[in-house]
Amino acid sequence: MADDLYKALGISKKASDEEVKKAYRKLARKYHPDRNPDDPKAEERFKEVQGAYDTLSDPEKRKEYDSGGMFAGLGGGGPFGPGAGREAAGAGGGFGADLGDIFSTIFSRGGDRAQSQQVRGRDLETEISLSFDQAVNGALVSVTVPKAERCPTCHGSGAKPGTGPVTCPRCEGRGIDAQSQGFFSISQPCPQCGGGGQIVEDPCPTCGGSGLTQQTKRYKVNIPAGVKDGTRIRLAGKGGAGPRGGPPGDLYVTTRVAASPVFKRLDDGNLEVTVPITIVEALRGATIEVPTLNSSKKIKVPAGTKHGTIQRLRGEGAPKRRGKGRGDIRYRLEIEMPEKLTKEQRQAAEKLAEALNGADPREELLRKAAR
């Protein structure tokens, strides 16, 4: 079994964490449902890749899996599988509950007679690609997420229609198993019911008793104006469904913003544009046209402008993420030099040199260096 998850990602058992992540991202992009909308085999492969990544990306789960422990039979993305990875080129997700989740939810004020509680579903993650304009102006974008949902046959109970879960005989519905160790009593999730307090004697034929099936959901994500690459947006309650009717987790959408060929993003809402100007414009000044986010405007280039001078149009940048208003656009003026001079241009340059009386701009620099 230990080789199956590694084969699913096309890597060896000695692969590093970075190699696991790299292989997962590549395969997730390749088999994502958005890229293969009418290919059920690609969707199944996508689930398999996600299930493998969820286990191999977690050091503890990977260690258990390699040793043939509790996770050895859970890879592969079925309804009982660990589910989708926590970071993705397509979508993330998962099924079931971590032991940490179980410990945090099954104990109440009643000590070893604590009543079992519903376990929350897993939080999922996905990435969404945005153009520069979408990120700056905001947009409503669709995202497709394979995730664990309540089984349509048993409605999440895990039991065959006409039957229902029964109280666990081992823990008598408490969800915990207490064992005495000398002077101490150690409580842990009941191994028979997994901490749920109930067991399914006659499993649902559709979900096999988990109460969950793998489904593909599409959501509309409202992208606020001014988001940057790597912004994380939370969709409450859109994560994986909880086992046996438990509350769902959340869905986190990470934005991936394409670079603009014109505008460079700076700090909050501010942008920068590199604007070429001619030697003549720099020497005698000019009024030039520059691009803005919506059209273009004119700015003045003062006579004697130096290479790298910054001009600014206030309030023409992107919306600010914190506070009101918009940032500025900074225009970096760079003097464009011709690669080759024509005969006339060379003659003009010589006349300009004569008019400047052969002034040496490095004279003061050399004088200071000689001290």
Class of secondary structure makeup? alpha+beta
- For the largest beta sheet, what order do the strands appear in spatially? 10-11-15-14
Globally, the shape reads elongated
Span between termini: 77 Å
Alpha plus pi helix count: 9
Beta-strand percentage range: 15-25%
Jot down its keywords.
371 residues; alpha+beta; HSP40/DNAj peptide-binding domain; elongated
Task: Map the helices and strands.
Layout: H1 2-9, H2 17-31, H3 40-56, H4 59-66, H5 99-106, E1 124-130, H6 132-137, E2 139-150, E3 166-167, E4 176-181, E5 184-189, E6 198-199, E7 212-223, E8 232-235, E9 251-257, E10 264-265, E11 271-277, H7 279-284, E12 286-291, E13 296-301, E14 309-313, E15 329-335, H8 343-355, H9 363-369
Please provide a written account of the structure:
This protein folds into two domains: 2-161 and 210-257, HSP40/DNAj peptide-binding domain, CATH 2.60.260; 264-369, HSP40/DNAj peptide-binding domain (Sandwich). The protein has nine helices and 15 strands. The protein is α+β, with helices and mostly antiparallel strands and 371 residues long. The strands form six sheets. It has a four-stranded mixed β-sheet. The chain is elongated. Helices cover 24% and strands 25% of the residues. A hairpin with a 4-residue loop joins strand 12 (286-291) and strand 13 (296-301).
